[in-house]
């Protein structure tokens, strides 16, 4: 049975159209929902939902949230709030099991063919004790209810707050550290408390991998700081360094600065003019940066020579 796929994104960044179209291409029978805003209500091959209609569902968490991260407060808070918005949407529309994908994820697999591996768990994702929730399976409303209740508990229970403060202390003491308290960390803690109901998705049956982030090694061969991808029949494989075996990847997650790689790995067709234009702009920016760097180095060398 086809399983729904949910995206959540404010704004319409250049890479979004590729992630959405790719999800449709590899999941032709799944309902695909984008919880977004007026700027990204332009994709006829999915169902767009204005996320603002669920804003009231997140007010209770917003009131108790305390920012403890090197990331911007607006960004970090929205990462938490998306789960409350998604819960409200699922409740309103009686959504059962579903998969949530970050908007910078390219998927190369029908998710309905994957769910038999983790359908016995309430939550499965690329988090566990490390990683981030770029691909998250929820078994239904009870599962996302449980996680949202845990988020509320984590910011309202005295002992839970104390434990969060202890995690945050090294970051508060050293402003050079990046990260701290995020929804990712709360997923890690949820998994620790619910070990029998949750599972990490990174490799399935030693044959199919779910990418945590393409700019993490995770035991695979890398090139220029990202996983090196080998293509077979337009499907991505990465080489396990320990075994030398090529493992097929169901997803590639272009986290952070890796987002420009989405256009090069996109395989769903269409957007020909956009792809040519955006590829040229990326190359132009890289060339411009290279020229600036060369000029900077030349000035340093000349300065040292004449001083």
Walk me through what this model shows:
This protein is of the alpha/beta class and 307 residues long. 40% of the residues lie in helices and 18% in strands. It is built from nine helices and 15 strands. Strands 3-2-1-4-7-6-8 form a seven-stranded mixed sheet, with helices on both faces. Helix 3 packs antiparallel against helix 5. The chain starts with a strand and ends with a helix.
Considering the chains and any ligands shown, give keywords for the structure:
307 residues; alpha/beta; seven-stranded mixed β-sheet; six-stranded mixed β-sheet; globular; disordered C terminus
List the uncertain runs. 303-307
Oligomer: single chain
Radius of gyration: 21 Å
* Approximate shape: globular
- Counted beta strands: 15
Roughly how many Å apart are the termini?
73 Å
Strand content: 15-25%
Main beta sheet, described? 7 strands, mixed
Measured as a percent range, the helix fraction is: 25-40%
Describe the strand arrangement of the main beta sheet, using strand numbers. 3-2-1-4-7-6-8
| Secondary-structure content class | alpha/beta
Order of helices and strands: EHEEHHEEHEEHHHEEEEEEEEHH
SS summary, helix count? 9
Mean model confidence by pLDDT: 89
